[in-house]
Amino acid sequence: MWADGRELDLATVTHRLYKGSADQLPDSLVEAKEGAGNAPAYRGVAYVVFERLALADFGNRIPQLSFEIERAVDDFETLPRAVCLIPGLGEFVYAPDMVASKAGPASNAAQNVHTLQGGTDWEVALDQLQGAFPNCGKVSLVVGWFGTDLRAAHCEVRPGVDSADKVTDPMVWQVAGIARGAAHIVSQHAGRAAYGGTPADAGVIAAIRNLADRNLSVTLAPFIFMDVPAGNALPDPYTGAAPQPPYPWRGRITVTPAPQQPGTPDKTAAAATDVAPFIGTAQVSDFAIDGDSVVYSGPNEWSYRRFILHYAYLAAAAGGVGAFLIGSELRGLTQVRDGASSYPFVAALADLAADVKSVLGPTTKVAYAADWSEYFGHQPTDGSGDVHFHLDPLWASPDIDAVGIDVYWPLADWRDGAVHADRAAGAPSIYDLDYLRANIAGGEGYDWYYASDADRTQQLRTPITDGAHAKPWVFRFKDIRSWWLNQHFDRPAGVESATPTAWVPQSKPIWFTELGCPAVDKGANEPNVFIDPKSSESRLPRFSSGVRDDLVQRRYLEAFLTGLDPDHPDYIPGSNPTSTAYAGRWSIRAISTSMPGMRAPGPPSLPTPAPGAMRTTGASATGSPAAMPPRRLPPRSRPSSPTTVLPPTTRAASPACSPASSSTACSPRARRCSRWSSASSSMRARAAAASSSSIAARSCPPSSLRPTTSSRPALATRSPH
C-alpha cells in the first residue's frame, strides 16, 4: 500500500483488509458508527479500512492511496500441495517475533524485518504463501550448517554466524549448545559475509511450532552449505592441487584422491577409513533435551552424525515433525566404495536413519533426498562396466519410509530460431504444456542422450539402449516408473547378478523432495543450474540468453504438477500407478527449491557411442552451450528434449546437420508464484508441490556406455552446491 507515492509501513497503521468474499461481515468500526444492522458488508468488493490514520505527514489531508493487487490468471495456485521454505541460513530468519541487534550506543536494527507489510519476514512470507497457495499443506524447512572442505577426512560440519560480536535481543543466537563466540565465522566475499548464519535453535523451534499452528505439516531438512572461499589453500581431491573451487556443491565431498584419480582409496578398505571422520561417532545417547534446548555430551567432533542427530532432537523438542530428511545430494560420498560393491557412507546413512527413527518415533517419516543423478544407481565412467544399485540397502531399510529425489530434469531442448529439432517435431514453444509434459517420460534421459557437447550443439541424439539385457530403464534417469516396478540386479563388470538387490518393487513411495526450474530464458533446458557469481558452480542453462523469464518456471512446475496428479485432467496415464505392496499411489511430494548457490551441474561428459549405435539427427541451432569449467565430477543428470524427437532421420554415428537461423523468443510476463521473498532477508519459499497422496514421474539416471551392446549416457558433470 502506498500513500502519496511512498510505501506505508503497515506495522504503524491500524488497518483492516477485506478481500470481497461472499460471507465477509461489516467492518466493526463502520458498524459502531452507523449502528448495528445499518453498515453494509460490501460482499464481492475488496476494500481497506484505516483507523485513526495520522495525517500530519501528508499535510493534514487524506493522501492519495495506491494498492498493488495480484490475482491468479489460471488455476496454477491451486496445484501446489507442498513447498520448500528457504533460505536455510540467516541467524533469525525463521524467528516469528522480531529480533533486534545493537546498531549504535542508542539505536537498534531489526534482524528479521525487511518489509513494510506489518510483520517479521517469517510472518509476511508465511501469510503470502498461504494466501497464494490455498491447498498447500506441507512445508520442508531447510536448516543449514557449514561444510569446510571437499576432502571427507578433513571436512567439519559446523553451525556458523555472520558476525562474532553481534549483540541481539530478545533472542540470543545459540545452536547445538554453543554461543556466538565459539561458532564458525562465515567467510567474507566482496566485503560481507558470504552466507547468513545458521538459524538459531530457538528460532527453528518457534518456526516448527508456528507452522503447526498454521496447520502445515513440517519436514525438517538439515542441509550442508560449503563455506570454501576463493583463494583457499585446500588441496582439491579431484586434481590434487590447491585451491579447492570456491563455494562448491556439497555433492563434491569425497575421498582423497577422488575416485578415478591416481592413488584413490576408492574400492579399498582405506576408503572407509577416509570417510569415517566425516561420519563421526556421536550416538543417540550423547544428546538430551533440556526444555527448548538440546544438550550434547558426546565426542568433541563436528561430524555428520552430530549434525543430523542434533536436529532430530531439536525436532522432538519442538513437539515433533511430520517427516525428517537425514541428508540430501551427498553423491560424492554415497558413490565411494570400500570394496568391489560395498558403500560405507550408504551403510552409515542406514544406521543414521535407524537412530533418527528412535528419537522421533514411528509416526515421523524418515527419508534421504538423493540427487536425481544419484538415486537410481552408481554407474562409474571408469570403463569397468559396473552397474550398482548402490542406494538400495538404504531404500530397502525398514527405517526409511520413502525414496527421496531432488528432481531438476530438463523438460526441453529449446534453441533460438525456427530450425531446431523440437520445433521441427511440432512443439510450438518452450512454454507449451503438452511439450513439457511429454518430456517427463521422454526426451533426453529417457529416449536418448547426447554423447558429446558437439552432438548437443548439432542435436545428434543417441538412443538409450540395453542390448545385453533389454532393460534400458537401468540407464534412464527419468524412468522412475520402471525403476520402482522392477527388481534390481547389480552388474559387476557388466555381468548381471543372478540375485536381486534388497529393493522390493513398489515397496516404498517416491517423494520429489525438491522440484524446480530457474526463472530465466530456457530454464527448462537445464533446471539444475543457477547464477551465483561467488560460486564455482554458477552458470546459465544451456543456450540461455540470461534474460529473466518467470513464465518458463511456472510452466515447468505446472507440467509436473498436472502431469503426475492422477486427479488432474492432464494426468499422464500410468505415470502414478497404485502399489500392490502398500496402500495408495506413489507419494511424491514435489518441492521447488531454486536457491542461489545451490545447484549447477555442467554438461555430462559422455562416451563415444557403442559400435553400431544409431543417432537421431536433428536440425542444429547456431551458437554453443555456455562455457563450462574444466573440472567436473559426475553430476546430476540433465534432461532436455521432448518425447517427440525430430522425424526419425537416423544414421550411423557421424556428425552433420544443417545450421539454423536464430531469433529471440519473447516470453510473456507472468506472475511468479513459486517464491516468497522477504526483501533483503531473502526468505523464499519456492513452490512446486504435489499432493501428499502423490504424483509420479518416470526417472532414471544416465551412465557411460558399458557393454558395447548398450547405449546410454554417462554422468560426468558438475552439480549443485
Structure description:
The chain has 721 residues and is α/β, with parallel strands linked by helices. The protein folds into 2 domains: 2-79 and 89-121, no CATH class; 123-711, no CATH class. It is 16% helix and 16% strand. It is built from 13 helices and 31 strands. Strands 6, 9, 10, 18, 21, 22, 23, 27 and 30 form a 9-stranded mixed β-sheet that branches. Helix 5 (304-317) runs parallel beside helix 7. The two termini are 38 Å apart.
What is the overall number of helices? 13
Mean pLDDT: 83
Structural category is alpha/beta
β-strand percent reads 15-25%
pLDDT < 50 stretches: 591-721
Topology at a glance:
Blueprint lengths: L1 E2 L2 E2 L7 E4 L9 H7 L12 E4 L14 E2 L15 E5 L13 E5 L2 E4 L10 H12 L5 E10 L9 E2 L1 E2 L6 E2 L4 E2 L2 E2 L4 E2 L2 E2 L2 E2 L7 H13 L3 E10 L42 H11 L7 E4 L2 E4 L7 H14 L5 E6 L2 H4 L9 H17 L4 E7 L20 H4 L6 E6 L13 H4 L8 H6 L9 E2 L3 H6 L1 E4 L1 E2 L13 H6 L24 E6 L34 H14 L50 E4 L32 E3 L31 E4 L22 E2 L10
Parallel strand pairs: 6-9, 9-18, 11-15, 18-21, 21-22, 22-23, 23-27
Antiparallel strand pairs: 1-2, 1-5, 3-4, 6-30, 7-8, 7-12, 9-10, 13-14, 16-17, 19-20, 24-25, 25-28, 26-31, 28-29
